[in-house]
Amino acid sequence: MKAVWNGVVVAESDDTVVVEGNHYFPESALHRDYFTFSNHKTTCAWKGQASYLSLLVNGEMNTDAAWFYADPKPEAEEIKGRVAFWKGVKVTP
């Protein structure tokens, strides 16, 4: 699977986990040069607290475009160490 935004592959892996229709990529699959820190956090009732990352590609910022659960609840343990995308990031085979 590939995660593409602004014409650039920002993550790529054959090992994704699908939860609620979202592909969670291993952290090692991220092309880190395109990711920046975000203070944004949300809470999911069954997964726990999500932290976010922003994308900076070709001079354009996509704020909070990726999220991860650093310490997911036991029911969501399969996504620990994985990152998912939204906000216009296309995930394709």
TrEMBL record:
Domain called DUF427: residue spans: 1-87
Alphabetical list of InterPro entries matching this protein: DUF427, DUF427_sf
Database matches in Pfam families: NTP_transf_9
Protein name as catalogued: DUF427 domain-containing protein
Organism: Acidovorax facilis
